[in-house]
Design goal:
The structure holds two protein chains of two kinds.
Chain A (H helix, E strand, L loop, with lengths): L6 E4 L1 E4 L6 H4 L19 H6 L15 E4 L11 H9 L3 E4 L4 H10 L2 E4 L2 H13 L5 E4 L4 E4 L2 E4 L4 H9 L4 H6 L2 H8 L11
Parallel strand pairs in A: 2-3, 3-4, 4-5
Antiparallel strand pairs in A: 1-6, 6-7, 7-8
Chain B lengths: L6 H8 L1 E4 L5 E4 L2 E4 L5 H10 L9 E4 L16 H17 L2 E3 L9 H7 L8 E4 L13 E4 L2 H10 L1 E4 L3 E8 L8 H12 L7 E6 L1 H4 L3 H9 L8 E3 L4 H7 L9 H12 L10 E6 L6 E3 L7 E3 L15 H11 L14 E4 L1 H4 L2 H11 L9 E4 L4 H9 L2 H8 L2 E2 L20 E4 L15 E4 L2 H10 L14
Parallel strand pairs in B: 3-4, 3-6, 4-5, 6-7, 9-10, 9-12, 10-11, 15-16, 15-18, 16-17, 18-19
Antiparallel strand pairs in B: 1-2, 2-8, 13-14
The complex binds iron/sulfur cluster.
Chain lengths: 198, 472
């Protein structure tokens, strides 16, 4: 059993762009590593070098834990280095219009809250953060809302992922291990594991 | 009553160990492929928890991403790459997993090696810590890319939790025109359905166009399913699938092959199989296709101009504008004639023997333009050997292409093969993301290997159909 994650609170950081791929979140050269340690400082490294105003470089967003993003966030490669680098930078929750599937799965495995909101609501949240970066946000998985000051918007998340976070069962490895006998029994029914005689 | 389940659902049901109350499936994994980038942290998790690899014989590793393709002597000059190489050697040794490393003649890009060795078979569930695992769907398997935490889960239990996706059948019928390849078909599909069109779906590719394709062409199509947002794509197994697998090292042998064949063919979606969605295209609408932007959906048929922003949906304009600016291209201009600095033939999309044969056919008797650096990187050591036996390397070298060792090379920036500065690369790979090829400002144009070869020779993007060597 892992920690129960029912909500995430903290300040926000807006990055309302679409189709942000994992090569942008963490460029491939930083994948030359055997641990995920230290990846936080390289989040969006190339984008930051080309854009002096990149939110991940701005002092007012340092220490933020809620990322506001656009459509198809995290598309591209399966590298868990991407959510790892965001997590190690400090991000605990991502509110986006939609997520690429492998990225979403990786977030679930790491206990990062990844919820969907409408474009309009994302723009409202983004604007609230930009006008006052100290605004406290709360991503609440029980009520499925994100609040920022007096703004409140509703969000969506796949039930399976939400349940896992709320009940603290996102340590999938432990759960999978607990079914070891069932797995062995099941393997005995799969044709290619049994000389195609099943 | 006939089984109206499509192949995907048949294979999924067969591998379902249990369904959790939240509807997630614990799925048994038939084949787990490993490479050096996404596995070290997973092995570390096993070590931390004192776990073993549960099904070692269902797990196989190779090295591809960080491998230098020119000087492969050890230790590698890049110390971080050397460290990763030692890590996978040590981990596979310690956990008893077979590793096809550089010294082993079977090393190569994991998605080239699996099929080549006969590891990839119809009806299997296949995972790898790599998004292009979708390639293996060409054999009628469920093949999906996973993250490192999942790699640890599969190593330790040979299972993982997944939500069952919906299945969309993508039908393409008709003959492809000369000069139009499998790569153009998948680029066209992604252009039409968008980079997130496939989210939540598995794609079944069906219709006479795919029926007519070789296994290698089918792999090119399935490879890029992920670029269309689908986590996996597949093609029903048929006689070509069976023929391809016959006699491969890990294929079933003798009587077992007979039994296997019968089972494999029985998995195919029937004529009355049910799907959640269907989209139909005509092969005759597809021309040689080139990406001009920073997502694989930002492409045009070679005779078409780039989009004009004021004519695009309002919601798309920011992204299109960003792409045009990054690429240094103007709206409405033709993609044809775009000057290139680098030409790359290789990758798990188009680094197989048939790709190299076609590129060599185009290159034969020509010279690479003086300002262009052109490299050919076979997808595996066996592809390289075969190409050399056919003398393809001599054709490439005579034309001024560099002939390299097997690996991912310039598909991504984890080894010495990289773009410099704002170079423009005509590439047979699968991703044109910003920075993908190693320079944060480098630019990528995706196209078929034949089109890359022609671009290398002309020093600019050309229409392969006008290049003068298209055979009908
Ligand atoms: S060739 Fe490119 S896409 Fe394929 S596995 Fe290697 S890096 Fe990934």
């Amino acid at each position: 059993m892992s920690t129960k994650i029912k909500s995430v609170s903290g300040t926000g950081i807006p990055l309302l762009l679409d189709d942000i791929d994992t090569d942008r979140i963490i460029p491939a050269r930083y994948l030359r590593c055997v641990t995920f340690e230290g990846l936080g400082e390289f989040a969006f490294e190339d984008d930051r070098q080309q854009d002096p105003n990149h939110p991940f470089d701005k002092a007012e967003y340092k220490g933020s834990s809620v990322l506001i993003a656009g459509r198809n966030f995290g598309c591209g490669s399966s590298r868990e280095h991407a959510p790892q680098s965001l997590m190690r930078w400090g991000i605990k929750a991502i509110v986006a219009e939609s997520f690429a599937e492998i990225f979403f799965g990786n977030c679930s495995s790491l206990g990062i809250v990844a919820v969907r909101a409408t474009r309009e609501d994302l723009q409202t949240l983004g604007a609230a953060i930009e006008s006052n970066p100290t605004t406290q946000l709360k991503v609440d998985l029980e009520s499925l809302t994100v609040t920022a000051g007096d703004i409140s918007v509703s969000v969506e998340m796949a039930d399976s992922a939400r349940d896992a976070l709320v009940t603290g069962e996102w340590d999938y490895l432990g759960q999978l291990l607990s079914a070891a006998d069932q797995v062995t029994a099941h393997a005995a029914t799969i044709p290619y594991l049994n000389g195609f005689t099943k | 009553m006939s089984d109206r389940r499509n192949l995907f659902n048949k294979v999924w049901d067969l591998h379902t160990v249990r369904t959790l109350p939240n509807q997630q499936t614990q799925l048994f994994i038939g084949l787990h492929l490993i490479h050096e980038v996404t596995s070290p942290q997973a092995y570390e998790i096993l070590r931390d928890r004192g776990l073993k690899v549960a099904y070692r014989e269902r797990t196989i590793a190779t090295v591809d991403h960080i491998v230098p393709t020119a000087d492969q002597s050890r230790p590698f000059k890049d110390l971080l790459a050397e460290q990763m190489m030692s890590a996978i050697e040590k981990n596979c040794d310690e956990f008893g997993v077979t590793l096809l490393d550089l010294k082993d003649g079977r090393q190569g890009i994991v998605h080239v090696v699996g099929p080549e060795q006969g590891l990839t078979q119809p009806g299997m569930t296949i995972v790898c810590g790599d998004s292009h695992t979708s390639t293996h769907g060409a054999f009628g398997s469920i093949a999906i890319g996973i993250g490192t935490s999942n790699v640890a889960q599969v190593l330790a239990t040979q299972t993982m939790f997944l939500d069952r996706p919906k299945v969309r059948r993508i039908v393409v019928n008709g003959d492809l025109a000369p000069g139009v390849y499998a790569k153009d078909v998948i680029l066209h599909i992604i252009q039409k359905l968008g980079v997130q069109g496939g989210v939540g779906y598995a794609y079944e590719y069906a219709g006479s166009t795919f029926d007519a394709m070789s296994m290698e062409e089918r792999m090119t199509v399935c490879n890029m399913s992920i670029e269309g947002g689908a986590r996996c794509g597949y093609i029903n197994p048929d006689e070509k699938t069976v023929e391809y697998l016959c006699g491969r090292p890990y294929s079933p042998q003798g009587d077992e092959f007979e039994a296997a064949t019968e089972w494999w063919l029985s998995l195919a979606s029937g004529d009355d199989a049910e799907f959640d969605d269907e989209v139909v295209f005509n092969a005759s609408d597809i021309e040689p296709t080139v990406t001009w932007g920073i997502t694989p959906a930002q492409s045009v048929g070679i005779s078409q101009p780039l989009p004009i922003l004021s004519e695009c949906p309002v919601g798309e304009r920011v992204l299109l504008g960003e792409a045009l600016e990054f690429m240094g291209l103007a709206e409405g201009q033709p993609v044809m004639g775009t000057r290139i600095d680098v030409a790359f033939i290789g990758s798990c999309t188009n680094g197989r023997i048939s790709d190299l044969r076609e590129a060599a056919r185009i290159a034969a008797g020509h010279k690479v333009a003086p300002n262009v650096k052109a490299i050919v990187v076979p997808g595996s050591q066996l592809v390289r050997e075969q190409a050399m036996a056919e003398g393809l390397h001599k054709i490439f070298e005579a034309a001024g292409f560099e002939w390299r060792g097997a690996g991912c090379s310039m598909c991504l920036a984890m080894n010495p093969d990289k773009l410099q500065g704002r170079e423009v690369c005509a590439s047979s790979s699968n991703r044109n993301f910003k920075g993908r090829q190693g320079s944060p400002t480098g630019r990528t144009l995706l196209m078929s290997p034949a089109m890359v070869a022609a671009a290398a020779i002309e020093g600019k993007v050309v229409d392969i159909r006008e290049f003068g060597c298209v055979t009908a």
